[in-house]
Amino acid sequence: MTLNIASRNDIGELFCKGEGLEIGAGCLPTSVAKGSVIHFADKRTPDELRTYFSTNDIVNVQSLSVFEGQEFDFVIAHHVLEHSANVIQTLIHWISFVKDGGILFLSLPNRHITPDASRLLTPPTHFLLDYAYQITEDDYESREHICSFLWGWIDVGGLEGKSK
């Protein structure tokens, strides 16, 4: 049986109307409803994005801090939340940009088709403790997540036994 699942762009065009913010769009912004205005935020500068994606075809991006205090009809973030050191705090922050009745449109990668497949499933208590202890990207626990992620890429991603 084949499931007919709408793509991110189909969902964006249907539900993301008005003025919005997309976090981490890079070179693949989400399609939104015709006539909508969308702003882009990323932790990287435009030059860093060009280098990272090896293309000049990137969105006109600004730091998320530029948008502090503003509210939008929709906020989009695809494949961004999993990079957060403090998932709950990140969600609270993103929700602060959404107007009452607005849309927070997120997607996360399917761990079964990425090198993360070998990683242990993160228990909900882990997210609660990160929030309770106010973990940031600068904390040891956050850097340990990065090491675990890289280990998964080396072990399962086909890099095992390879050298530079």
Describe this protein's structure.
The chain is α/β, with parallel strands linked by helices and 164 residues long. The chain has 2 domains: 1-108, Rossmann fold (3-Layer(aba) Sandwich), CATH 3.40.50.150; 110-157, no CATH class. The protein is 31% helix and 18% strand. The protein contains 5 helices and 5 strands; from the N terminus they run H-E-E-H-E-E-H-E-H-H. It has helices at 8-15, 46-53, 87-95, 124-132, 140-156; strands spanning 19-23, 37-41, 61-62, 72-78, 98-107. A 5-stranded parallel sheet has the order 3-2-1-4-5, covered by helices on one side. The longest helix has 17 residues, at 140-156. The radius of gyration is 17 Å and the shape is globular. It starts with 7 loop residues before the first helix and ends in an 8-residue tail after the last helix.
Order of adjacent strands in the largest pleated sheet: 3-2-1-4-5
Low-confidence stretches: none
Number of domains: 2
Structural class label: alpha/beta
CATH H level of the largest domain: which superfamily? Vaccinia Virus protein VP39
**What's the order of the H and E elements?**
HEEHEEHEHH
Count of individual beta strands = 5
CATH topology of the largest domain: Rossmann fold
Proportion of helical residues: 25-40%
User: Please, what is the average pLDDT?
Assistant: 84
Strand percentage lies at 15-25%
What's the CATH class of the largest domain, please? Alpha Beta
* Radius of gyration, whole Å: 17 Å
- Please state the overall shape, judged from the principal axes of the Cα atoms: globular
What is the annotated CATH architecture of the largest domain? 3-Layer(aba) Sandwich
